[in-house]
Amino acid sequence: MSETKTKRLGRFGTLAICLVASLFFVVSPGLAQSSINILAPGSTVSGVLGPASTATTYVFDAGANWSATVSLENISGGSLAMLISDINGNTIAQAADTAGAGSLAANDLLLGNGGRYNVFVYFAPGSGAPDTTFDIRLDLAEGGAADTAAQEASAAEPQLLLLGAGIDVRLNWNGAADLNLEVRDPTGQALHWNSRATTNGGEFGFDANGLCQVISGAPEESAIWRPGFLSTGSYEVIVYYEQACDALTGSVPFQLEVMVDGVSAGRVDAVLSPSGATGRNVYVTRFEIGADGSAVLNTGGANPDSSLTLLPAGFDFASAAATPIVRNVAVLGEISNEQPFLIYSFAGAANELVSVEMQAIGPNLDTLLQILDPAGKVVNVNDDEFGGSTDSAIANARLLSTGAYTIIASRYAKEIGGTEGAFQITLTGPSNEVASQLTDLSLPQGDIEVSLFWSTNADLQLLVRDPAGESVFDDNPLVASGGILQEAGNVNCVPAATGTPASYIYWPPGTMRPGTYEVEVWYQNACSELPPPVDFTLLIEVNGQVVADAREFPQAGQRFVTNFTVTPAGAAFAGEAGFIDAGSRTLAYQEEAFDAPLIESGQNVTGVISAENPFDVYRFNGVAGESVTISMLAATQTLDTNLYLISPGDRQIAANDDADPVLLGTAGRTTDSLISGYVLTENGPYTIIATRYANQYGGTLGVYSLILRVN
User: Fold this and answer.
1) Which of 181, 502, 528, 624 is 20 to 30 A from 467 via CA?
2) Confidence (pTM)
3) What stretches of 373-514 adopt beta strand conformation (E)?
């Protein structure tokens, strides 16, 4: 993603395994089953054949009308042959070293429609099958010039076209809100409020409602390219909802229109909602300028920060075409508007650490990486690599299970985005800075083990509250029940000594007590001016069994809470889990509110918060101008109370988790709740929700008393 850093499967089709096997049989009935390897342009790969493996298969991807040269050098052993075919089994070239020269090549092969190609290496007729080593190399280029990835990228450079009226992109909206326009052109340059000119004649206009300092009655922002030779190709347009400028402004309707050479390429009318706890709300679209100057504006769509974890449209259909990726071998691909993602697969083992890097080669590609576990769940994602680059990298991702993993190589905003270009992707093992303690998971074992892993410099706090109400975290690393904080990664923004941050809390063997435990992950500090997106893995194990594992993507300041219960027999089960910054909206209280008990001023009611009953609902009839005070005190030590007051219009108007014990007279106890002296603004039925910290996600239990006082 840019702004200040703040489906066709056409080209790369599926690998037809059955076709490969049958083609091998035609070439040589005695060949053993082949292995499959990736050929990267410009790289030399070593291979081995012998009596037990008399053939091997390589695959490579190429564009339409590219040319290829495949050369093979025999290092030692018998004479070799090779056959090159397209994905449909049509032979492109054959060569055999029947003279024992030690090398052979297929030069300047015209690849026609492009796609996936197979290279079969096997023993030449009459050679026998001795142990044989060889090197094989692929060179790719457009139009027959033998070259590597740099030439492939330059072939995709945008073409210039004389546009006598230039390009004009305008954003208009209604409302006191700060919206921002950004346009990224096919050369990789961008226009927005903090990038007001490009080298090819682009200019950004006035920053309307910028920082809400001066509010316009008719806000408008523009990005224009003056008349001249301008780039054809794909332009990406992004509209950001930065902030509302007053308390009354919510969702904002806007209009986006694009003019190319004096002709409208189209207009979009849409609505953006205010950004929330999950990040900024963003609208993304693109317009494309053809070689003849014609232009079309796409409809586009919403692309909030939370959409990073969503799969691209068409993934379910395309996933069967995943390309196997070999570790430590760079693979080339290309993202376009017609093909916004490519899919790769690899075999992973539980507790293994892997890293993936995706680097754009040309011309304006803004990459996006996702990793899916064997169950098809997105477990790692990265948009922009740390350090301001729009390339993507996932470092030291821990695999929680054994099986087939999937890598999705895409771009910012996926199918609705507008950046294009070639890329290089590489899968490797753990980076060198990972300590063996984390690589081997050589942490002390216990009856209860709670592990938190992430891969950035951010300070994430892990806290576990035991059934007695005592909490283990970095300020209290040991509790009476036996809980111990063993690891606390990046505390106070000090990088973990291990290089990869991890937090680990455990109860040693023999110390586990039955009851409900509460687990919280708090994103305390990004520890960077330009933080990369954070994703963490939370793993809870009881008696060696995984009770819960969660992979989440928090924003700075958010708290993720869950709980688990251990029975007297030692069995364990997990409760609900979620982020708690939404307040009462996480609770489905509305249905209960209709039949909730009606309470009067001065009335003392009691209730029980349990795993089966995480909240109670009460009602009272209020009059505008009245002052209400509501107190909720725990009768048992472990319950951490929480209060909400809901208006007759079903809007949360007051809340309290921890109140001043002096006001409550609770002698130092800080986890009781008090809504004090709230003045009602309307007549009607008000709702009181009595619950616990973190609502249904929390883990504290017990009896409470609640008193309403109206003045």
Assistant:
1) 502
2) 0.59
3) 378-382, 392-398, 403-411, 421-428, 448-453, 459-465, 471-472, 484-488, 502-507
